[in-house]
Amino acid sequence: MAERRNADRRSADRRSPLAGFAARFETASAGGALRLAEIPFLTQLNLRVDAKSPAAERIGRALGTTLPVEPGSAVRSGDLTVLWLGPDEWLVLGPDEGEAEIGAGGAGLRDRLVEAAGSADGHVSVVDVSAQRTTLVLAGARARDVLAHGCALDLHPRVFGPGRCAQTLLARAQVVLVARETDEFWVLCRSSFAGYVAEWLLDAAAEYVT
Amino acid sequence: MTENLPDHPDWLWAAAEPKRSYDVVIVGGGGHGLATAYYLAKNHGITNVAVLERGWLAGGNMARNTTIIRSNYLWDESAGIYEHALKLWEGLEDDLGYPLLFSQRGVLNLAHSLQDVRDSVRRVHANRLNGVDAEWLEPEQVKELCPIVDVSPDVRYPVLGATYQPRAGIAKHDYVAWGFARAAAAYGVDLIENCEVTGLDVRDGRVTGVRTTRGPIAAGKVALCAAGHSSVVAAMAGVALPLQSHPLQALVSELLEPVHPTVVMSNAVHVYVSQAHKGELVMGAGIDAANSYRQRGAFHIIERQMAAALELFPVFARAHVLRTWGGVVDVTPDASPIVGLTPVDDLYVNCGWGTGGFKATPGVGWCYAHTVAHGEPHPLSAPFSLDRFTTGALVDEHGAAAVAH
Amino acid sequence: MLLIPCPWCGPRDEIEFHYGGQAHVAYPEDPAALSDEEWARYLFFRDNPKGRFAERWSHSAGCRRWFNVVRDTATNEIHAVYRIGEPRPVIA
Amino acid sequence: MTSRPGEVVRFRFDGRDYEGRRGDTLAAALLANGVRRVSTSVQLGQPRGIFSAGGEEPNALVQIETPFPEPMLPATTVEICDGLVATGLPGKGRLADRPDPARYDTVHAHCDVLVVGAGPAGLMAAAEAARGGARVILADERPAPGGSLLGTAEAVDGLPGRRWAAERAAELDGLADVRVLCRTTVFGHYDDNYLVAVERRTNHLGAAAPATTARERIWRIRARRVVHATGAHERFPAFAGNDLPGVMLAGAARTYVNQYGVRPGRRAVVLTTNDTAYPAALDLAAAGIEIAAIVDVRQAPGEEWARRCAERGIDVLTGHVVTAARGAGELSSVVVAPEDGGQARDVPADLLLVSGGWTPVVHLFSQAGGTLRFDEEIGAFVPGDTQARDVRLAVEVAGSARGVPTLSGCLRDGAEAGRRALAAAGFAVPDQAPPPAVEDEPAAAPARHLWLVPAADGDGDDYREHFVDLQRDVTVADVLRATGAGLRSVEHVKRYTTAGTAHDQGRTSGLLTSAITAHALGLDVADLGVTTFRAPYAPVSFAALAGRDRGHLHDPVRVTAMHDWHVARGAPLENVGQWKRPWYYPLDGEDMTAAVLRECRAAREDVAMMDASTLGKIDVIGPDAAELLDRLYTNMMSTLPVGSIRYGVMCRPDGMVFDDGTVIRLAEDHFLATTTTGNAAAVLDWMEEWLQTEWPSLRVHCTSVTEQWATVALVGPRSREVLAGLAPGLDVGNASFPFMTWRDAEVAGIPARVCRISFSGELAYEINVRSWYGLALWEAVNAAGVTPYGTETMHVLRAEKGYPIIGQDTDGTVTPQDLGMAWVVSKKKADFIGKRSFSRADTVRPDRKQLVGLLPEDTGRLLPEGVHLVEPGGTRALGHVTSGYRSAALGRTFALALISGGRERVGERLHAAMGEEMIPVTVTHHVLYDPEGARRDG
Ligand SMILES: Cc1cc2nc3c(=O)[nH]c(=O)nc-3n(C[C@H](O)[C@H](O)[C@H](O)COP(=O)(O)OP(=O)(O)OC[C@H]3O[C@@H](n4cnc5c(N)ncnc54)[C@H](O)[C@@H]3O)c2cc1C
Ligand SMILES: NC(=O)c1ccc[n+]([C@@H]2O[C@H](COP(=O)([O-])OP(=O)(O)OC[C@H]3O[C@@H](n4cnc5c(N)ncnc54)[C@H](O)[C@@H]3O)[C@@H](O)[C@H]2O)c1
Ligand SMILES: Cc1cc2nc3c(=O)[nH]c(=O)nc-3n(C[C@H](O)[C@H](O)[C@H](O)COP(=O)(O)O)c2cc1C
Ligand SMILES: [Zn+2]
């Protein structure tokens, strides 16, 4: 019973970095050319493992997909998304698991991966970074145009279509950019930069939404 | 009407043909090489001197710098040589008989964070003990001196104050170079253009001459003044220098009615700007991160420069960039120069002035000429020997000494 | 703005990278055994050639990997990109 | 020509109201209104008119006043809009005295082929590239595509050139992967085909411009291939009086007539060295301008042109020159003479068309690193071999930009360039399409390259009226003076005379300057060369370059999860790197001093809290994690027990302190390292650098978790009690939770990691939660009656304890030993980064600057940070105050200082030199408060 209360209390107390922007995002999305919103509290795990190791294979099984090894690619498996970040580094995105404890315990995604990694091969790291970044969704016909104001990547649908992801710069902030659908992007940015990124996006969008 | 530039003299110098040998060969015809030649002749009576320049005289960094002159450096060693230079600047027009447009309009170094303030105040106090004029100004005083600086507290990096050196200022770079060139030539120094040094002859640990695109030239002593190319030239004698060469850019606006009466530099919001005599805003940017010998830098440096400029000077919004350019600067690990002897006898080195050696031109010419003439360092340049990197006695002007220009 | 081919991410703008200076400068086996001169060489002296230069870059705003590049400092042309640990390629 | 068709636009120039037509440039509209004097020259104050019809204009510079003040624009590039107010400039522009309300932005673009210039060559290049499937961007600085076709009456494929161009461009723009940008000047060509352009999006709309549209936009274009189809600028020879209003480039006059329907004069003389002035003369004649004579310096023009002139009754004076243009402030007559010295005559005229040939626009090509070659036939520098140098340029040049003189030639050349670009970008090249048809193209007679026309006898032969650079008022006499002073390089001549340094960067005059210099030196201009081309090709506003990076978007603002609370509570914020941190929390009526003293007392005597979330946090995991940390920190981390915490210092290899922080051991193979706020990214980079480049065999992974955690520091004698209340499940007893250990627990119902560490010297804890909970935790702790404190109090508390702040008490020249922290330097480890440097000659000097405490004799006297210390009576600086505060705990002021041989001086009396004033102080040990550490351990 006490457990339950704590959990409720916790979700009530949680505040995402862009909670204060919801209304402005809605206004910007009203015209239809663009949709801008925060997806708060996604579970995010930074995974480091040798892609060719048995541990990677086991982790893949736990995720329901092999780890993407092509640079800049993302795979989806159920409600999970696995983003290639580097030759031995991935970001695993999953749904909000709000109540997970610090450290091990419970049946959270992190524990599943840690368990899959096993200890035999040693050198695997699964680090919870769920609160390190928040996720913005930017969608609609003008989404690419808005991003192109601050992102030097070639965002042409043939080059950066669904299934692509990249760590790069958006204006002056580091972001992880994910092409979800043809006209839908996720922008993952560090929590401390989130306000800046949001302000920047709203400013860049002004021309398209008014 | 507008302020016209003073005329250059009717006669500057004659292009000299290289002779077979000289007492002293100076490699590099920038400001430092020319000033060294001048003081060798004037102070030490050594006139059988050639200045070898691979391109057009003073066409290197001397033609490219933002001409800021100040002596408010942090460490005693730096204050010594830069203040010596500033004193020479104060009499240089008369000495050279050339209008140098030396304008002691003062230099402001802005502070934008509490740490900036600490560093600035520290420098002011250090300067005063070293006899260098320096003041700490509060934001309102900054505004008084330069009304177009935005000192409002609600900007991204508010101005929390500034150091001010009233005797600092600017001069007209080409006039300075040509003033030294003309005066050196008048003493009989050969100024040889389009003459690239391609090799240094070293016999038994002693330099004996240079090879050039215009033939070999014997030399009693060889004094390097090649700025951005110092590593390349020194390597010809097997001498390694702790230098990295980077492009550094600057730019000018169109001619504008007077708006900016002084010189403003900011470290945190990286920008430095003055309004030159004709009316153009002269602005410096930062170095490119990577080594390069291209006399041009990357564009994003200019964009950031402009963003910084508009933070401090909102009225600049609709001014236009007329021209950008770059020079190649030789940067040392401690942001201080290297002046003195080398492991090779009779081979001397003056380099590592990086982004800030214009202001030193007369001072270093003076000290380096002394070093070359006597075969031992001038007391003011002695701390800047090459062996400080071995002992560790660096003169680190990075951390606390604001932007190095 | 150089276009630097990250060996993993492909070509990206220079501002995504962090410059690391000369490549192949190994940390001395036994620093304690070095003379002050030798230690100073390690600390402060790096090649600074005008021409081809093997240098390190890190894709700091991307995959965070360090790698090596052979670039001509006179022209900025990139001649080769290779991973840490690989020998400097011979370029005709 | 008041009967010009088109929509009427009203504007004001130099205080008078005028009407123009939509689409007019200010220059065209002024000419239409008979205004010929537009500005005054910068040095001599001479009246100047309109010389060209494009961006190369050297004379007609104006200041815009309305809609918003903008300095120095060529009237030839300003599109008029209703309400425009402009004035002619006497050489200098004027900045607004109010903030610019306009928006500016930047866009990144990528393409296979970028075509610069939408003249006939560029249009064909773009069309061919697009036909092959490439992604194409076509950019032109003019409002409409067509280039020189806009100003000539030539037909292409049976259509007027202007229409042909518009149709081609519209077709292209309709394609999915093609973008046509007008009013867009490509102004820089940088390494790796990075080109930058500025698009002027709203100027021509005047007050109708939408507020959300960026006024100017910078395009950052990365192109696989670039086609420079930038055209050519007409040039002029130097003759006496060539600066008078009424003297105009021949092609420009033609443009005014054809494009704008404006007659730039009534009676014209034409001076030419080549055939291109003939169609200009004929077009003017057709528009009703009397052509008094064509003065051709050659012996014969092209036959067809001669015939057509004869047909129209236009006098062609071959072998003649114009020795002077005359008039009082405006052209009234032209002195024409046979070149071989015959009788000169004065021809009344209000217009003098000049054509000295065409100079290819090689600016961008040259910027890109291309070398130039002198083409004897056109008498100008043209692009050299793109593959000649070490850098192989991914560039083609097409049309008159590389000296192709004819329209049909430019069309063909453009198409070929497009096809070359296509192939080079890796596309299959489709079959060649038939080139557009050009009907009227008479064969040309060779041009003659004449640079300088000596004045007729007795008529100012000192060359003081022969202008070379109109904008800088540089004359042939000035150039001769430069060469006379001994100068032999055109770069020197430029700087001696200032030729080529004005707004137009010598676009129409640069070659002339070189030619005159070469002439004076007895050299060939081909050998002398021209001055360096630099970006920008045309002036660009500062604001455009700053783009969106202004105001609150100038640099990212980083904030913690508790930020809004700090702001709501009225805390002034301190910039620490990009972070905004609360500085102190004043209560009503409190000044900073009072607030800080109160906060300090709370921490020392009661309980206080601080937002410590900004500290960098790095997760270090792997079998070799301890080994990595041992190598990077000066002290030993491998011996740290799991569950414990150790303070550590990192040095650079030169032995100087670089960062410090705590390291907590989570598991045998798992650590969490904290860094200073400013150095978080640098330390992670540092770790990765060593790991990846030096020790790749170490099995360690480092991950930034700085923002994963929000951290509340809970400080003070009552902190244990407060913690116990918030975390009933945590045994907070000193024995079960001792100093320098950590525990996981629920705090205020939130999963937390509690570390018992102290940066204040008090009993203290740092409570870490996922940053989502940061605010909730903060509020919960605060609700327990805990006093919040800011960075200033933090600084005071740590200083009382002698804890240095890296970057405040150090400056990159300080070793751990200098800081009195020899204890943090392991004697056991064989090596770690920095160790070797501790035995260098300079690091073992006994007189190094060392961290000490200072107590002013006047206990109320605050020592300003940065003040220097001297021996009584001395002037040599021994060091400086790094930190200076009022201490509530000590009941007095105190300071930390770095002082030469400081530790040996403990007990000595020194002076802090405040200018003239000497403040006596006593040197003490740097730890002033609770040196035994009883409080934090208790
Ligand atoms: C954009 C920019 C802004 C700057 N701003 C300032 C400032 O505001 N204040 C300030 O004090 N300093 C400034 N500097 C730095 C200052 O310009 C230099 O420190 C100083 O000019 C260097 O000395 P120098 O004049 O002798 O160098 P240079 O003029 O560069 O002279 C070196 C000469 O050596 C020649 N050379 C090289 N190799 C050879 C060879 N093999 N054979 C023959 N000749 C050779 C070169 O061609 C060159 O002419 C700035 C520099 C730049 C690039
Ligand atoms: N001898 C000659 O060179 C000569 C003389 C007279 C007329 N012509 C005629 O001129 C035409 C030449 O055709 P073309 O296509 O080569 O050139 P063009 O002059 O017709 O077109 C060049 C276009 O490039 C644009 N441009 C130049 N630099 C630019 C930049 N940096 N950014 C954006 N736009 C830029 C110009 O505004 C212009 O519209 C032919 O019809 C030819 O007969 C040539
Ligand atoms: C202080 C200073 C002021 C300058 N003012 C101008 C100017 O008003 N107009 C201009 O075109 N160039 C100006 N320049 C730049 C030079 O034209 C030139 O770009 C610079 O000397 C570098 O040479 P380069 O571009 O030929 O390589 C100035 C340079 C300096 C150092
Ligand atoms: Zn990468």
TrEMBL record, chain A:
Gene3D superfamilies: Heterotetrameric sarcosine oxidase, Probable tRNA modification gtpase trme, domain 1. It holds the Pfam family SoxG. InterPro entries: SoxG, TrmE/GcvT-like. This is Sarcosine oxidase subunit gamma. It comes from Sphaerimonospora thailandensis. The gene is soxG.
UniProtKB/TrEMBL annotation, chain B:
It comes from the Bacteria. Its cofactor is FMN; FAD. InterPro entries: FAD-dep_OxRdtase (IPR006076), FAD/NAD-bd_sf (IPR036188), Rhodanese-like_dom (IPR001763), SoxB (IPR006278). It is found in: Cytoplasm. The gene is soxB. Its main location: cytoplasm. Keywords: Cytoplasm, FAD, Flavoprotein, FMN, Nucleotide-binding, Oxidoreductase. Residues 24-68 form the Rhodanese domain. Its EC number is 1.5.3.24. One of its GO terms (cellular component) is cytoplasm. The keyword Lyase does not apply. GO terms for molecular function: nucleotide binding; sarcosine oxidase activity. The keyword Transcription does not apply. It catalyses: sarcosine + (6S)-5,6,7,8-tetrahydrofolate + O2 = (6R)-5,10-methylene-5,6,7,8-tetrahydrofolate + glycine + H2O2; sarcosine + O2 + H2O = formaldehyde + glycine + H2O2. It comes from Sphaerimonospora thailandensis. This is Sarcosine oxidase subunit beta. Gene3D superfamilies: D-Amino Acid Oxidase, subunit A, domain 2 (3.30.9.10), FAD/NAD(P)-binding domain (3.50.50.60).
Automatic annotation (TrEMBL), chain C:
GO terms for biological process: tetrahydrofolate metabolic process. GO terms for molecular function: sarcosine oxidase activity. Pfam families: SoxD. InterPro entries: SoxD, SoxD_sf. It comes from the Bacteria. This is Sarcosine oxidase subunit delta. The gene is soxD.
Automatic annotation (TrEMBL), chain D:
Residues 465-548 form the SoxA A3 domain. Signal peptide: none annotated. Keywords: Oxidoreductase. The keyword Cytoplasm does not apply. Residues 562-829 form the GCVT N-terminal domain. Residues 112-372 form the FAD/NAD(P)-binding domain. Belongs to the GcvT family. This is Sarcosine oxidase subunit alpha. It comes from Sphaerimonospora thailandensis. The lineage of its organism: Bacteria, Bacillati, Actinomycetota, Actinomycetes, Streptosporangiales.
